[in-house]
Amino acid sequence: MGLQEITEPMLAKAAGWEAMKSARQYIQSGAVRSATWKAPKAMGLVHTGSIEYKAGLIFESEIDIENFCSCRQSREFGTLCAHSVAIALATLHPESIRSSSQGSENPVT
Questions:
Q1: Residue 1 domain-assigned?
Q2: How far is C-alpha 27 from the chain's CA centre?
Q3: Is residue 106 part of a domain?
Q4: What is the domain count for the chain?
């Protein structure tokens, strides 16, 4: 069944300060191109440089979180990466994404 709701403190505890810091930077720079929440999943796209990552998290519980991202950190080490954390954060604050990515063809939904 999984979690029906996520919070910033829960994400910070699970991902750590470094991933949260990078995730916030992705949001502020407009790198998050789409982000959707359908419990227990947060899915979306993050564009960094010339690479677009399809990423997301599945929340079975506050400590059982599955990361889906095509980045090296996720594939090789299985850690919660900043791309997926940024998507989850964006689902909590969609208004900040809209303002930071004005003119984007892929608004947050």
A1: no
A2: 9
A3: no
A4: 1
Of 87, 75, 66, residue with least CA distance to 19: 87
pLDDT tens for the chain, 109 residues: list them: 788 999 999 999 999 999 999 999 999 999 999 999 999 999 999 999 899 999 999 999 998 999 999 999 898 988 999 999 999 999 998 876 744 444 444 444 4
Beta partners for 38? Answer: 41
Residue 105 lies in a domain: no
Interacting residues of 3 by C-beta distance below 8 A, sequence separation 6+: 39, 40, 59, 60, 61, 62
Q: What is the pTM of this model?
A: 0.85
Tell me the two tokens of residue 82.
């900043």
Is 95 inside a domain boundary? yes
Is residue 83 within a helix (H) or strand (E), and if so which, with residue range? Answer: helix 82-92
Which structural domain, as residue segments, surrounds residue 95?
Answer: 8-100
